[in-house]
From TrEMBL:
UniProt keyword terms in alphabetical order: DNA-binding, Repressor, Transcription, Transcription regulation
Domain of life: Bacteria
A Pfam family per the record: LacI
Keyword set includes DNA-binding: yes
Region (Disordered): 332-351
Annotated organism of origin: Lentzea miocenica
CDD domains: HTH_LacI (cd01392), PBP1_sucrose_transcription_regulator (cd06288)
Protein name (database record): LacI family DNA-binding transcriptional regulator
SUPFAM superfamilies: lambda repressor-like DNA-binding domains (SSF47413), Periplasmic binding protein-like I (SSF53822)
Gene Ontology molecular function terms on file: DNA binding
């Protein structure tokens, strides 16, 4: 005998809320209408436990191709820093004749699962599961219900779902290359991570891979990094503190800061010490954060290609849909190049 369908009324009763409240929570309007976080979490948890699935479209056979893609993110939909990732995905979907539904989870696993279920209820052809910064993620169960691509993320477990990520190792090579080409062969210090490949902030894929690229190029050029300063957080405050500590004992010729916010703090410490960028000290950053363009001189940085990441993820997913049914395995990882954004923060060293 078939399983009895769980209704919205069942979820409301088991959660101790009204049907209206349950409906608002499960349609993503809880915060908009000031429903308490405790009630929201209780409704979502109950819905998952009971196996409730919203049926937002008329029942019947699933269309062969709905021409829709779902994008579920943690915070990128509302983040100015990575808004271009969503824009790139939207534009790529439009060019290929698809609509893109975007949902934001705030990093809550229950909300992630509910959003993915909602995408499938809307007959989305596939789902892009995205992260604000490159990290290892636990995959929601519903992600395996149809074609999917990870964007700016890799799986914590073995999976057949491909990933689209920035090429952080090559970015490290590019940052080191900028200094080598400018003639820097001594007095180079790292701000943010290192010296060993394990001396990185917790769960930071970017730090480990950028460090690999840096070490490769500096090693090939016979350049020894003088010191490295691991920062638990990549904020201006930590960049300032690490650089100020360095300046108490060293006179650097160049700094490689593991992101632009660290570089912003480094600029302040250098200025307070009476050192000019790039006349006395050259500085390179990563990410092409908006702060890079506010710094004077403008920071030379290796850019995170947010727009291209979003576009590539959609392109990979559509390609999977077009090949569906054929025995063709896509690559497991797609690495998107990170371009150099030239500023005025690097110059030939004074001898």
């Amino acid at each position: 005998m078939g399983r009895t369908r769980v209704t919205l009324a069942d979820v409301a009763a088991a959660s101790g809320v009204s049907i209206t409240t349950a409906s608002l929570v499960l349609t993503g309007r809880a915060r908009e209408l000031r429903i308490s976080e405790a009630a929201e979490r209780r409704v979502r948890s109950t819905a998952q436990e009971l196996g409730y699935r919203r049926n937002t479209l008329a029942t019947g056979p699933r269309p062969a191709r709905a021409q829709t893609i779902g994008l579920v993110s943690d915070t990128i939909a509302s983040s100015g820093l990575a808004g271009d990732m969503v824009k790139g995905a939207v534009e790529a979907a439009y060019r290929r004749g698809y609509m893109l539904f975007v949902g934001e989870s705030g990093g809550d696993p229950l909300v992630e699962r509910a959003l993915i279920d909602a995408m499938h209820d809307r007959h989305a052809d596939g789902v892009v599961f995205a992260a604000m910064y490159t990290r290892v993620v636990a995959l929601p169960e519903g992600l395996y219900d149809g074609p999917a691509v990870l964007l700016n993320a890799t799986s914590a477990t073995r999976t057949t779902i491909p990933s689209v990520v920035p090429d952080e190792v090559e970015a490290g090579r590019s940052a080191a290359g900028v200094l080598v080409e400018a003639g820097h062969d001594r007095g180079i210090h790292l701000i943010g991570a290192g010296p060993g490949v394990h001396d990185v902030p917790p769960n930071s894929i970017a730090a480990a891979q950028r460090l690999l690229g840096l070490r490769e190029v500096f090693g090939a050029a016979g350049i020894e990094v003088v010191s490295a300063h691991r920062c638990p957080k990549w904020t201006p405050e930590h960049g300032y503190e690490a650089t100020a500590q360095l300046l108490r004992t060293q006179r650097p010729k160049a700094l490689v800061c593991f992101n632009d916010r660290l570089a912003f703090g480094a600029y302040q410490a250098l200025g307070e010490a009476g050192l000019a960028v790039p006349g006395d000290v050259s500085v390179v950053g990563f990410d092409d954060h908006p702060v890079a363009s506010w710094m004077r001189p403008r920071l030379t940085t290796i850019a995170l290609p947010h727009h291209e990441l979003g576009a590539r993820a959609v392109a990979v997913l559509v390609d999977m849909l077009e090949r569906r049914g054929r025995d063709v395995r896509p690559p497991m990882t797609y690495r998107v190049p990170m371009p150099v954004r030239e500023g005025g923060s690097v110059a030939r060293p004074r001898r």
